Each structure stands twice: as C-alpha cells, then as structure tokens.
C-alpha cells in the first residue's frame, strides 16, 4: 500500500509512519482491513507473490501549491510512499501526467515531489498526475498506478478590471436626488472561493458631490437634485474597484464614466426685444420675406421647437408668419403688394409658443412670449400703371389706314405724377399693323388688315415716364379683327368624278360642297348652279340640295370613251354675304369602263392603233439595239489593237536596255552571242523602212555618212540632245509603216559633256580610261573577278 504526506507536519508524520510495522496499520491511519494483509515478517517473502498480490488502497489527499512562488529552490509539494518500499532501494517512484518532468519532478528513491516552475492559478488551477511504484531492477509495477491532483493555491495577484469601460451614460437634467445613472461592473481573475482576493468594492474618486456609487453593486446615482444642463451638461467620473473588500493591501482598478445631462423642456421661449422695426420697399414682390425674428430658448432639439403666429395688427391679410424648421426663426412673409401712397407702415403683434411642453415643468412657465413688430414701407419710384392691365378692342377687316381703334391710359403712381408717353413693343407687332399716339395713347391702324391671315393681334403697350424713362409700365391690348365678306366660296376639295359607260339617265355621279374663308355671324349658306353657257347641256344637270351641297346627275346614258373621254362642267357657287360673292369651279368628269358592280376598270382615252407595240416604241427599241451593237464593235476593236504593240520598243541607250537571248553561252567569258559594239554605238539608228509598231524579226542597222552628220560625242550636250530628238522625229515622220495615230516614243541619252562621261560598265570597256583598278587585287578573293575584269591594263577582258 502507498501513502503520501504533504509538506510541513505531514512530512513529519510520514517519517513516523515508516517507523511502525505496516502489518498492523497502514500509513496515515488506514487499517489493514482496507487492503490485503501482509505476510508474517518471519516468513520468507515470495517476490512473485508480492508482484501479483491484489491492489492495495491509496491514501490520498490533494496536494496544494502556492502560485507565484519566487524562491530560489524548487518548491516542495509532497511525498509519496508505498508500504512495499522497505527502504532497501528496490522500489522507485515514477510520476506521469500533466506537467510531469516539465513542472513537477519526483525523487525516485524517496518519492518527494517538487515544483520546478512558478505556477499561475489563473492560467491553470490544477494538474492531474499519475504515480506508480515499480521494481527498480525489472521496472515492473509493484503497485497499481493511481491519480492524484495538485491544486494551485490562489494569492491576490490580479487587480480588478472593468471589461466594459470606459462608460458613457446620460441622465435627464433636473432629475431628483438618487436617480440611477448607470451600473459599472469590475471582474477579478483571482479565485472567488478562496479568501477575499476576488471580493470587490466600488468607490468614486472624481465626480463628487454630483454623483455617488454603491460600494457593492457599482450603481451610480445622482447626488444632487435639479442639475441644470444649461449650466453644465457633462461630467466625467472616475470609479475605483478594489479587492480584498477594500482593505489595505488590496489591488484596485479604475474606469471613467462620462455622464451627459440630457435636455428637458424647462426653459420657455423669450424674445430678446419687446419691439422690432423693419423697413421694406414698396416694390417688394409678393411672397417675399419681410423680416425674420427669433425667440431665444436655452433648450435644444425638440424642446426648443416653437410656433409663431400673428395675434393682431392693422394690416389684416397683408402678412403671414411661419417657422423655419432649421433655425426656429419666425419668418414674416408678404401676402399682398405694398403701396406707399396707400399705407406707409404696419404694426403687428407676434406670439412664440413652445411646441412640446413638459407638464412636469409647467411651474417654470408660461412657455410662450410676445413681441411687437413695426413694418415701415419705403417709397420707391414705380413704373406707370395702366388703368386696365388688359384692354380689348375690335376693328373691321376693311378699316382704312389711320382708323382709330381705341385708347389706352396709364398714370404715374408716385407723388411726382410724371407725364406718360406710349409706344408699341414691336416684337408683338412685327409687320407694324398698328400705331399708338405717344401722348394720348390712341391706337390706330397703320396697314390694311386681313382677318383670314390674322384674326387677333396681341399687342404690348409701353407706358414710359417722361421724367425717368427707365420707369416703364407694360399693358396688354387684344385687337380682334371683324370679318367682312371678301372671299368667294370654292370647292371643298379637288373632286375626281368617274362616270361609267353604262350609267343610266338621272343617276347621281357626284355630290359637291363648298368652303369659304369668311366666317359670317349667321353661318354659311351656299347656292349651286351650272354656269349659264352649259346650263342647257344634254349630258348633265345640277341639283342644289339646300344644305350647302349639290348633286351632279346625268341627263342621258350611253356615254362612250371613244367619243369623249372627259367632260368639263363649270359650276357656279354663290355665298349669302352682303354683298354676295361667287366663283365658277370646273368639275372634271372622266368616262370609265366599269364592271357590273359599277367599279371603274379603266378610264380616259382609248388607243385606235392595232393591238401590239406602237411605231414609236418599235423605233426606240431598234435604236437601242443599234447602239448596243456599235458599242460591242468598238470594244472588240479596241481589244484587238491592244494585243499588238502600237510602237516598237524604241531605240534606247545601251544602259537602259535589257537584251534577252535563249543561248546559254559560255558564261561571262563568252562574247560570241551578241555584238556589244552595236549596243554601244550611239551613231547607229534603225532602218527607217522598218515598222516601229511591230517587232522586227532581224533588226538591220546602217550608218549615216560622216559628212552629213558629225558623231554625237563630238558635239556639246545641248546640241547632241536636240540633234538626237530631231533625227528620231524625222524617222517617225517619213516612216510609211508607222501607225496613223499619235504615239509616244521615249529616248534616253546621257550626253557627252560629263566629266565622268558614261557611268555604264558596258560603255567603259570601249573607252580609253585612265582609271587604275589594280587596287581591286588587294581586296581579297571576293573581288577577284572584278580585278580580272578591270584590273588588267592590257585590255584582255571579257569584252576586248
């Protein structure tokens, strides 16, 4: 059986327990009946029996270790001992579990347990370990493994903390004594079940005498009644939490609490003045702001909102007052126009009242105030005013130029009573139909009027002060033009009348109506009749329907398109005006071939030619065919001519010609395939008898006599070119085989006046040159061929 003892007195008891025989009593007061009985000390011990005996009971109590041990030596925790251990060193103790070997160590011989590191209860409050006694030689257990707990005993090493701090709180102003503001709470990491390390009490360090705190609960309350926000609206408190029930040596922590006094409506509005005076010009527009007044209220927010009203005044309906919701100003608005000459001042009495009144503070009222406002009207130089802002006049359409239509009148509203001059705004009378007398204001016609063009004229009349032309009044005059009968009636539309060949006599073929630009007061009444020359015709008649319409009827049947395809019927229309006006309108009636339902199939004249195409159409088609044939022939001819060259490839300088031949030759050394002298000779021309527009099979050359023309190289450049061109021109003129149309022949010739002479490599071979090309031999194998061609002075080149 194994037992343990802790530090201190228990350690002494453990030593004493080793001195007594274990047969009669177990360690730490455990009776033998609690475990298996040991053998007699006189009998030989059987080691196998010892290893396989039943598990004995442990005697355990928890180990306790103080946290934050600061000693230099390992902290003694306790001692383990087994009754199997006879002190002969055959038993050793083994420790395992949380912190074994890293925090806790055990003396394998004595069973003493020590803590080698500082322990923090707040990090880990206890450790669970396993202890076992084993045979030192075989490492076989002599006792079963069992667990025990090492608890870390708390000390006061953590100060209280406010996890929710700092705090913000509010309390209404004027609150009674003891009104709760906020509750603060501090926590202590120490063990609340051991001692007073975690027992916290609260106190107020800063914030007295306005507030207090309950020591146990942390509830903050008001300590003074009727605190006024308008005097001081914010307080900063410092609250302390101290452990050890506030005793000396306890640890403490603090936090701040910002308390704001919230507003209540405890202040009535008050005007800063009992009388206000404002001056406004009489020209102030309606709906304009006359003045702004404000009643002061020390409250804020909704507690400072107020309503204004005009209680009385000598200008009813002239003004109104509203509240500016942003500034809580009273805004006085003008409702009617001001007139200095009529009334020069107004007196108003205005009241301001709190909108939200708290019944708890009615004793501080009344929550309203009144003031007087005097509005003085300032005289300004006003523009003239028309007696009638809108004048209406009428004039006959046939009024002569200069006819008076009416009169406008305006006056100066100021006391100066300045004379007025009148004029028409020509933007409203662009064609200048009217004039106005500048002094009297009489409006008269200036041009002939036409109601059908413009029936109403809207004129703007200016009234201008003579003393101050900048003051201009405006009036509107509407002139209505009265109608006269000056337009004859005409057909309402352009009628298209169709008459079927099978129409019967007395059949209505068209109903006509009329329109008139005039507008008589009694309405239109039109009369219809056939014009006198055709009134007795045998084909058609007209019937007036007495409703401003008339019907056209046939007198006979059997109309034929071949005989007459179209009939012209003049119709006389007369209006009911005074005097009556009339007009003759022609109605065209076309004879048509119709089906059995009377639907026109074809109208107009019938062709008398035989069925088929007309002669004109046949001639047109024939002309088109001939034109197409001519165009085709021209195209074919042009294509054939393009296949044969018009001009032979003219004679050119040897430096611009490419000679092609099919003989492969003997390479660069072969000079038998062509005659280079012929190519280089500028004095050789082609035979004039050879055509220049075809390529000859075998070109022939001849030389002009030397006496007739000097060689080109002996002439100056300008003469050389001129002679060369003239020779070619003569050849083209006398050539009987040349094409009978203009041709372009190109000649290229460098001339003989250049210091460098010809740049052609072919020409340079036939001239005597002083140029030494021996240096080409020094340029390496790549230039060997050039050195062979040009470097030998004996002339044994490829063209020599």
Automatic annotation (TrEMBL):
Its main location: other. Keywords: Calcium, Cell adhesion, Cell junction, Cell membrane, Glycoprotein, Membrane, Metal-binding, Repeat, Signal, Transmembrane, Transmembrane helix. One of its GO terms (biological process) is morphogenesis of an epithelium. InterPro entries: Cadherin, Cadherin-like_dom, Cadherin-like_sf, Cadherin_CS, Cadherin_Y-type_LIR, Catenin-bd_sf. It holds the Pfam family CADH_Y-type_LIR. Residues 1-29 form the signal peptide. SMART domains: CA. It is a single-pass type I membrane protein. Cadherins are calcium-dependent cell adhesion proteins. This is Cadherin-7 isoform X1. It comes from Parambassis ranga (Indian glassy fish). The gene is cdh7a.
């Amino acid at each position: 059986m194994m037992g343990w003892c802790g530090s201190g007195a228990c350690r002494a008891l453990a030593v004493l327990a080793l001195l007594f025989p274990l047969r009669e009593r177990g360690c730490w007061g455990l009776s033998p009946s609690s475990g298996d009985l040991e053998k007699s000390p006189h009998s030989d011990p059987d080691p196998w029996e010892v290893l396989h005996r039943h598990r004995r009971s442990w005697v355990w109590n928890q180990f306790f270790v103080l946290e934050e041990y600061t000693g230099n030596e390992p902290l003694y925790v306790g001692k383990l001992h087994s009754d199997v251990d006879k002190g002969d060193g055959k038993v050793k103790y083994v420790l395992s579990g949380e912190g074994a070997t890293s925090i806790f160590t055990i003396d394998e011989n004595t069973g003493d347990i020590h803590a080698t590191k500082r322990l923090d209860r707040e990090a880990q409050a206890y450790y669970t370990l396993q202890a076992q006694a084993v045979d030192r030689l075989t490492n076989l257990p002599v006792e079963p493994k069992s667990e025990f707990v090492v608890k870390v005993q708390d000390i006061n090493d953590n100060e209280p903390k406010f996890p929710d701090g700092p705090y913000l709180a509010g309390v209404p102003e004027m609150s009674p004594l003891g009104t709760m503001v906020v509750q603060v709470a501090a926590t202590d990491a120490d063990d609340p079940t051991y001692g007073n390390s975690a027992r916290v009490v609260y106190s107020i360090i800063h914030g007295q005498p306005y507030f207090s705190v309950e020591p146990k609960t942390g509830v903050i309350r008001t300590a003074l009644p009727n605190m006024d926000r308008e005097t001081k609206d914010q307080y900063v408190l410092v609250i302390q939490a101290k452990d050890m029930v506030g005793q000396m040596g306890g640890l403490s922590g603090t936090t701040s609490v910002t308390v704001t006094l919230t507003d209540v409506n405890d202040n009535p509005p008050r005007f800063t003045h009992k009388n206000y005076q404002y001056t406004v010009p009489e020209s102030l527009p309606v709906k304009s702001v006359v003045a702004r007044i404000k009643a002061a209220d020390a409250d804020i927010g909704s507690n400072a909102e107020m309503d204004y009203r005009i209680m009385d005044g000598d200008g009813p309906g002239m003004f109104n007052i509203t509240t500016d919701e942003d500034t809580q100003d009273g805004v006085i608005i003008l409702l009617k126009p001001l007139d200095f000459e009529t009334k020069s001042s107004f007196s108003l009495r205005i009241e301001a009242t709190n909108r939200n009144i708290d019944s708890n503070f009615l004793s501080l009222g009344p929550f309203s105030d009144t003031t007087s406002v005097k509005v003085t009207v300032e005289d300004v130089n006003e523009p003239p005013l028309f007696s009638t802002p809108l004048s209406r006049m009428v004039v006959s359409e046939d009024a002569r130029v200069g006819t008076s239509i009416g009169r406008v009148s305006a006056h100066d509203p100021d006391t100066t009573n300045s004379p007025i001059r009148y004029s028409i705004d020509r933007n409203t009378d662009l064609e200048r139909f009217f004039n106005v007398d500048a002094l009297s204001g009489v409006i008269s016609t200036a041009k002939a009027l036409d109601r059908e063009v413009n029936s109403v004229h809207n004129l703007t009349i200016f009234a201008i002060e003579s003393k101050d032309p900048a003051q201009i009044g405006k009036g509107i005059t509407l002139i209505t033009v009265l109608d006269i009968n000056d337009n004859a009636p005409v057909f309402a539309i352009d009628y298209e009348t169709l008459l079927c060949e099978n129409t019967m006599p007395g059949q209505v073929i068209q109903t006509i109506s009329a329109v008139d630009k005039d507008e008589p007061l009694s309405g239109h009444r039109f009369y219809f009749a056939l014009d006198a020359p055709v009134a007795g015709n045998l084909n058609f008649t007209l019937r007036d329907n007495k409703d401003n319409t008339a019907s056209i009827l046939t007198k006979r049947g059997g109309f034929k398109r071949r005989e007459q395809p179209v009939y012209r019927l003049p119709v006389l229309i007369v209006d009911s005006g005074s005097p009556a006006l009339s007009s003759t309108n022609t109605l065209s009636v076309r004879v048509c071939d119709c089906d059995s339902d009377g639907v026109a199939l074809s109208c107009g004249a019938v062709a008398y030619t035989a069925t088929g195409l007309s002669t004109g159409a046949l001639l047109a088609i024939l002309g088109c065919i001939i034109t197409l044939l001519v165009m085709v022939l021209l195209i074919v001819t042009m294509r054939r001519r393009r296949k044969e060259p018009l001009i032979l490839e003219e004679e050119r300088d040897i430096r611009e010609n490419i000679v092609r031949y099919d003989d492969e030759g003997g390479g660069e050394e072969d000079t038998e395939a062509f005659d280079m002298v012929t190519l280089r000779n500028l004095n050789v021309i082609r035979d004039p008898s050879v055509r220049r527009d075809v390529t000859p099979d075998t070109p022939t050359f001849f030389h002009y006599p030397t006496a007739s023309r000097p060689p080109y190289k002996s002439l100056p450049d300008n003469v050389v070119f001129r002679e060369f061109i003239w020779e070619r021109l003569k050849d083209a003129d006398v050539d009987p085989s040349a094409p009978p149309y203009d041709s372009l022949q190109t000649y290229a010739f460098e001339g003989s006046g250049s210091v460098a002479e010809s740049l052609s490599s072919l020409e340079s071979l036939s001239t005597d040159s002083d140029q030494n090309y021996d240096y080409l031999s020094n340029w390496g194998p790549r230039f060997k061929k050039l050195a062979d061609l040009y470097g030998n002075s004996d002339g044994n080149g490829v063209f020599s």
